[in-house]
Structure formats: structure tokens, C-alpha cells
Amino acid sequence: MAQIESAVVALLRRANDPRGNRKIYEMAGTDIEKAGAVMLARIDELQPARLSELAAAAGVTISTASRQVSRLVEQGYVARSADPLDARASLHRLTPAGRGLRGRLQRAVTSFFEQALSDLTPNERELLGDLLTRFVQGVLEE
Length: 142
What we know:
The chain is mainly alpha-helical. The protein has one domain: Winged helix-like DNA-binding domain superfamily/Winged helix DNA-binding domain (Arc Repressor Mutant, subunit A, Orthogonal Bundle). It has helices spanning 2-16, 22-28, 34-46, 51-58, 62-74, 96-116, 122-140; strands spanning 78-83, 86-94. Strands 1-2 form a two-stranded antiparallel ribbon. The two termini are 19 Å apart.
């Protein structure tokens, strides 16, 4: 049990370190901040999306989401338009540049995991996938 706990803690520490994803961002050819990459993914999943939906999906406050989305708009990755159902609200979508960056990030993540798992056989990778899925389900059921 101690080995599992140690490995999970090390993985979470790395994932939450602002520098932890530097290699992935370098592979994708971007200097986007981690928060921006997370918000880009949430917009891609939910678009068109209101700011309140994005904040909830990213687990941040609306003011934090607003800053992150505004930065992505300024960088040309996200377009903001009026919500036709409520003119007081805005909808957010990825621009072509945003879709391109999102694709590069997804390919970089896949490549990163392929490199990290290169010492495992296909059967070991499948077993690891099954075990991790069960582990995550157990954690989320709490």
C-alpha cells in the first residue's frame, strides 16, 4: 500500500507543479500557461459555453475563469459572442488557432504518455489502464 500511496502522491505533485507540464507544452510548441490549457480544454468540450459553465467545469470561480478566458481571447485562441438567448451573457468558442493549439496539446499528451510507458509491454499497458480506471472509479465514488 505504501508503494501505491507514494507513487500517487508523486504523480499528483508533478501534475500540480506549474512546471510539471513544461515538457508537454514544449512538445506542442506553445508557452501557454497550465490554467490556459485547462480552460482551452473545457471550452473545447462545452462550446459554445457561458462563462459560468466554464468556471464550474474547470473548478474555479467565475472571476478566475473570466481572467483565463480573457487571456485566451487576447491570444486569439477563443472567440466571444453574444448569447442569442440572453444578450447579457456571452458564449465562448475555440477559434481556428485555438483548435490547432488544442490538437497540438492533445498529440503532445499522447506522445508524452507513449514515451512514459515505452518500457511496458502492450499487455502491461492494458493492465495498467484497467487498474487505473478501477482506482479512479473507487476514488470518485467516495
